[in-house]
Design brief:
CATH superfamily of the largest domain: SPOUT methyltransferase, trefoil knot domain
Strand order of the largest sheet: 7-6-5-10-8-11-9
Number of strands: 11
Shape: elongated
Oligomer: single chain
Number of domains: 2
Order of helices and strands: HHEHEHHEHEEHEHEHEEEHEH
Largest sheet: 7 strands, parallel
Number of helices: 11
């Protein structure tokens, strides 16, 4: 019989809890996913499940949790039956999730990214807010775009905040990360059109044809994209403002750009 984990001092539980910190996620290239439905979305997206910590009592009572445990076993994941109290140690929720999983992170290099006539990527230069990043990932998946490229010192898309904001969309989006110089050099030979956002030499974002593979480049809300990246763009566009506000939240602006470009692709 598999031993029931009953203490937060258990070594495997302690290692899982460490994954709430970025340095451990980066070191192990893994991340946590909380909740049965979210874990199911990870499996549906063919993410690699490594460990499943679950409420052993509820697994005998709830069909969805029992089915998840069976699926995890078929995936050769390590099964870690535990108690409600141990699961409660992962969050401040009054009603803790019935299961928490460890998945492998998935990253692609720039040279492996697929670029076709229909491709629409969004590149984010040093995004700082994980909630914004998760929301952008959600918009990327919802719009049918190809994926997200993170440039330089980006916040972590596998953080709990970003995962919550992405509402499972992370598993349906391709992710890549790179430095600025590497990104510019890759773009120069990629054949894609780099479309930045800003005011200088800009056109209304609805004006370009967006033909061929497109990479939308977004910067921080305060500073926008850097001069070096701005100069690498073939097109600069702006989102017109009719009120007194002079800028939009990064996730809102990114969603407008993603849907404008992808709708053009699918409707043309």
């Amino acid at each position: 019989m598999t031993e029931i984990i009953s203490s937060l001092a258990n070594g495997k539980v302690k290692n899982m809890r460490k994954l709430r910190e970025r340095k451990y996620r980066d070191r192990t290239q893994t991340h946590l996913v909380e909740g049965v439905r979210a874990i199911e979305e990870g499996l549906a997206g063919h993410a690699h499940l490594i460990q499943l910590l679950y409420d052993h009592t509820l697994a005998a009572q709830q069909d969805d949790l029992a089915a998840l445990v069976a699926t995890a076993q078929r995936c050769n994941a390590e099964l870690l039956p535990t108690t409600r109290e141990v699961l409660g140690g992962f969050s401040s929720r009054d009603n803790p999730h019935a299961a928490i999983a460890v998945f492998a992170q998935r990253w692609q290099t720039l040279d492996t990214l697929a670029l076709s006539e229909q491709s629409v990527w969004i590149a984010l230069e040093s995004p700082r807010d994980p909630g914004n990043l998760g929301t952008i990932i959600r918009s990327c998946e919802a719009s049918g775009a190809s994926g997200v490229i993170l440039i330089d010192h980006a916040c972590d898309p596998y953080s709990p905040e970003a995962m919550r904001a992405s509402t499972g969309a992370l598993f349906g989006v391709t992710l890549a990360k790179t430095g600025l110089a590497e990104f510019i050099n890759w773009h120069a030979r990629s054949g894609a059109t780099l479309v930045g956002t800003g005011l200088e030499r800009s056109a209304d974002y609805r004006a370009p044809s967006y033909a061929g593979p497109i990479i939308i480049v977004m910067g921080t809300e305060r500073d926008g994209i850097t001069r070096q990246l701005h100069d690498a763009c073939q097109q600069i566009v702006r989102i017109p403002m009719r009120g007194n506000t002079d800028s939009l939240n990064l996730s809102v602006a990114s969603a407008l750009m993603l849907f404008e470009v992808t709708n053009r692709k699918y409707n043309d």
